[in-house]
Amino acid sequence: MIKKFFPILFVLTCFKFLVFAQKRFYNVDEKDWRSNKIQDSTSLIRSIFLISDVGYLKKREKGIVLDIMQKQLNRSSKNDLLIFLGDNTNSLKRDTLPNGALLKQLNLGKNFKGKTLFIAGNRDWHNKVIPIKEQQHFIDRTLGSPAFVPENIESIVQKIDLKSDLIVIAVQTELLLNKDTEEEKKKSSYATIEKIILDNTDKNILIVQHHPIYSNGVHGGFFSLKDHLFPLTSIHKNLYIPLPIIGSLYPIIRQYGISKQDLNNIQYQELIQSLSKIIANKKNVVIASGHEHSLQLLKQGNINQLVSGSGSLSTRVFNIYPALFGMGALGYAKLDYYENGQCWVEFYSINSLNKDSQLIFKKALYGLKGDHLDLVDEKSIDYKDSIKAISAGTEYASSKKRQKTFGKQYRQSWITPVHVSYLDLTREKGGLEVKSSSDNILILQDKEKTTYTFRLINRNPHDLLPKGFDATIIEDIVKDQTSTSQPYGALVVDYLSKKANLPSFETQLFFLPYTRLLKENLADFGGHLGLLEKSLSNYNNLISTDSLYTVLENHHVKVNQYLYLKNRLFDLLIGDYHRDESTWLWQSKKHDGNIIYSPFNKNRIQFFTKIDGYVPSFLRKLVPEVQTFGYTIKKPEKLAISARNLDRNLLNELSETDWIAVAEELMEEITDKVIEESVRKLPPESFEIDGQELIKKLIARKNNLKETALNYYNVLAKDIRIVGTNKPDIANIKRNRDSTTVTMNNFKRQFSNKKTKQIQVFALDGNDTLKVSGTSKAPIKVRFVGGNGVDYVKNSSKSKHLFIYDNPDSNIEYAKPAKLILTDERWINEFSRDDFIYNKSGFSPDAMIYNATDFVSIGLSHQIKNRGFRKEPFAFEQKVGALMAPKTGALEIKYLSTFYSIFSNNLDLVLSGRYIGPAYDFNFYGTGNSSENTDKLKYYQVRSKNAHFNVFAQKRISNRITAGIGPGFSYFNILKQSDNSFIRDNGIETSTTNWFLNMSSYVNFDLSDDTFYPKNGWRWASNANYFSQINNEKYNFVKLQTDFRYYYTPSRNVPFTMALRLGANTNIGNYNFYHSNTLGNLTNLRGYRADRFSGKSSLYGNFEGRLKLTKIRSYVLAGDIGAFGFYDTGRVFSNVTELNKWHSGYGPGIWINFFDHLLVSLGYGISSEDKVFSLNIGCRF
Question: Which segment of the chain is annotated as a signal peptide (predicted)?
Answer without folding.
Answer: none
